[in-house]
Design goal:
- This protein has a 5-stranded mixed sheet, with no helix packed on it. Strands 5-6 form a two-stranded antiparallel ribbon. Strands 8-9 form a two-stranded antiparallel ribbon.
- The longest helix has 21 residues, at 159-179.
- The protein has 307 residues and is an alpha+beta fold.
- Helix content is 27%, strand content 15%.
- Among the domains are: 1-91, N-terminal domain of TfIIb (Single Sheet); 160-234, no CATH class.
């Protein structure tokens, strides 16, 4: 679909081409509660990232772009210069709320606070909309300790409960990977998916891969704690790996930096004595060359004819 965002000027310069589930773009119940594209703080990096709240801010979606160089779109009779393809997928708002809970826990030394005082960010004014999401209201107890005084609830970050919750996320991810026959061996990059079993993956491979995926939505310190909580051994550093056996010269491709001057005729003659002759060279050496002219005679200047 195309977004309804428009800017004056050239032919639809503000249009985007995106793929989104129906629940992300459903019609609003009230005029001021339609889908909203907004920037929020990335829970892993803390940097600005584009997200989408659906109608009424009941669900949060992340927006990712697939972009090939020198691409554009034909839209009707116009050409859209921005050739990105945007993918809109659901994301758990607790990941984004978790960032603020951890921050408040460090600043307020573990004090209980109302969530409305925790999930605030002057750089991202739409941040409080996270608390309107249905998943945030229903599952906030998975990452916090709660106290209720009167009719108001107070919360503080709980690392113990959070790690249990994240482990469930990892297990769900592992189950999804296996059910879709996705290989997760070390030879694959994080974003590479192969839909058939080509190598045998161990349970540790799946858990480690799932941990990497979940780590894209949590701070680095929490990712390290989760690694320990999952009981995953640390990977060996490249420096501790045994050195790769040096390849034979015949296996090494010729590099562009090769010094080709070493192959001149003088050096070649001196190296012949120390090099083994190939089968073709041996056959050529047996040929009777008597009566044959040297190849240099064909390139030498012709003798002048006498008058």
């Amino acid at each position: 679909m195309q977004s309804a965002k428009q800017r004056p000027g050239d032919a639809h310069p503000g249009q985007w081409v995106l793929i989104a589930p129906e629940e992300a773009i459903e019609c609003p119940k009230t005029p001021d509660s339609g889908p909203l594209f907004t920037k929020l703080r990335n829970p892993s990096t803390g940097e600005a990232t584009l997200y989408l709240f659906n109608s009424g801010a009941q669900q949060l979606f992340e927006v990712k772009a697939f972009h090939e160089e020198y691409s554009s779109w034909f839209i009707g009779q116009t050409v859209q210069q921005d050739g990105r393809l945007l993918f809109v997928t659901p994301v758990d708002p607790l990941f984004l709320i978790l960032y603020y809970l951890i921050k408040a826990d460090k600043e307020q030394q573990g004090k209980f606070q109302p969530l409305t005082q925790v999930v605030l960010d002057s750089d991202y004014p739409n941040c409080p909309l996270l608390l309107k999401c249905a998943d945030a209201k229903q599952y906030i107890h998975h990452v916090t300790e709660e106290k209720e005084i009167g009719n108001q609830k107070f919360h503080k970050y709980s690392q113990e409960k959070t790690l249990k919750w994240l482990k469930k996320k990892v297990n769900q991810t592992v189950k999804a990977l296996k059910s879709n026959n996705i290989t997760v061996g070390e030879r694959l990059h994080a974003a590479t998916y192969i839909s058939c079993k080509q190598i045998t993956d161990t349970e540790e491979d799946y858990v480690r891969y799932a941990h990497g995926l979940i780590s894209e939505y949590i701070p680095e310190d929490l990712s390290k704690e989760l690694l320990k909580y999952l009981g995953l051994p640390e990977l060996k550093s490249p420096a501790s790996e045994p050195p790769v056996k040096k390849r034979k010269l015949s296996d090494v491709p010729v590099e562009i930096e090769e010094d080709y001057t070493k192959f001149n005729s003088n050096n070649l003659k001196t190296k012949k004595a120390n090099s083994k002759m190939t089968a073709a060279q041996k056959a050529l050496a047996k040929v009777d060359k008597s009566g044959m002219k040297s190849i240099s005679t064909f390139f030498s200047s012709k003798p002048k004819a006498s008058k």
